[in-house]
Amino acid sequence: MNAIEWYAMIGKTALVIGMLLMVAPVMNWIERRGAGLMQNRLGPNRVGPFGLFQTIADALKFLFKEDRILGHVNPFWYFIAPIVVLIPACMTFAVIPFASSITVDGTVIRMQAAELNVGFLYVFAIASLGVYGLIMGGWASNNKFALLGSLRSSSQMISYELSMGLSVIGLVMVFSSVDLMAITQGQGEALWQLGPLTIPKWGIFVQPIGFIIFLTAVFAETNRLPFDLPEGEPEIVGFHVEYGSMKFAVFMMGEYMNMAVASGLLASLYFGGWQLLPGMGWALGNLGLAGDAHEWARIGFEMLSFTLKLSFFMWFFVWVRWTLPRFRYDQLMDLGWKVLLPLSLANIVITGAMIYYGWV
User: Fold this and answer.
1) What's the CA gap between 184 and 99, in Å, rounded?
2) What does the H/E/C string look like for 165-196?
3) pLDDT given for residue 196 in this prediction
């Protein structure tokens, strides 16, 4: 590994970690302002302009609040449970490409923190470890309500992980790869040409059923409404009932980071990832740049395109939270096992038939 590759690796890693650390405070503010907008109220508007500094005040409160270990908990497992939830959320974003490749002094640099050819298989493998943190937190709290909350969470996540994994098999069949970079590059091809209008080969066009299943499953995997039964605040006691201070904040950071990973996967698998949005190619071409300047401008536009897609899905999580009511637990499990699982299996069969007859 030469010096350019070392600097690139450090820069990409710092960029991803910095983005993930910013997700929680920014999304906390957006969630509050979004709730105010949808409920016809103001939301935070006192601390800083538009309430922007409210999340900083909350972070300081979490940081300096007394963080004592309760007498009835199992100290070791109680302490590491939030970390076990947070670490997989940090690791999974590493393989999501946020731009294509660029050549610097003869060295090809791929714009993803970790260049793994197993792509989303790595994401699913690492993301599934987060459930251990929830079980650990509920059990170590030595509280029967926390334990019940963690059991609800584990059964929900395991149930929907199956459908989520099967929903992506159709994309593997279409693009013949599990590498997220290869899948994103494949979505740059044209699917249909309708006069002057070109329909790209985005995952949502070649796998609409798979997209619906995956979108539904990621809401359940991130414990967001209408699937927030593991931590429903109004009437259900969640797995983190015995947690406070920074430990509770770490649980919350893990949830927001999982939302960012889910949004990045949705953008990369079904909406072209870093493929430029309509109009961006025209804007890039009219900058009048050439050589290295044009290449870096292209990377900048691709990163902007990916960021806009990711931001839309992050906002979509907030939108759904204040739009749909919570499912009952029996409805949640019925949807996972009796609807999404058979539908994901049927989608694989349909995709195989379409590939056989040359329709995709």
Assistant:
1) 9
2) HHHCHHHHHHHCCCCHHHHHHHCCCEEEEECC
3) 76
27: phi > 0 → left, psi -120 to 50 → alpha, else beta; which? alpha
Q: pLDDT at position 308, please?
A: 95
| DSSP-derived 3-state class of residue 228 | coil
- What's the CA angle centered on 308, arms 305 and 309, to 5 degrees? 90
pLDDT in tens, 24-66: 889 999 999 988 988 888 888 888 888 889 888 988 888 888 8
Annotate 316-341 with DSSP letters as a single string: HHHHHHTTSPPPPHHHHHHIIIIIIH
Q: How far is the C-alpha of 186 from the C-alpha of 194, rounded, in Å?
A: 20
With contact defined as beta carbons under 8 Å apart, do 188 and 275 qualify?
yes
Say what the pLDDT of residue 203 is.
92
Contacts of 69 (CB under 8 A, 6+ apart): 75, 78, 79
Query: What φ, ψ does residue 158 adopt, rounded to 5°?
Result: -65, -40
Give the residue from 122, 206, 202 showing the smallest Cα distance to 165: 122
For residue 127, give both structure tokens. 């993301």
pLDDT, mean of each 10-residue run, the chain (360 residues) = 84 89 90 89 87 88 83 88 89 90 86 83 88 89 86 86 92 91 90 80 93 93 82 66 86 90 93 90 86 89 94 94 86 92 95 87
State the greatest distance between any 2 C-alpha atoms of the chain, in Å, as a whole number.
71
Quote the CA–CA distance of 175 and 194 in Å, as a whole number. Answer: 22
Which pLDDT score is estimated for 231?
A: 64
Distance CA 260, CA 27 (A): 10
- What are the b/e assignments for 251-269, b being 16+ CB within 10 Å? bbbbbbbbbbbbbbbbbbb
Coil, strand or helix at 225 = coil
Tokens of 125: 């493998």
Decide: 166 and 151 in contact? Cβ < 8 Å. no
Question: DSSP assignment, residue 65?
Answer: S
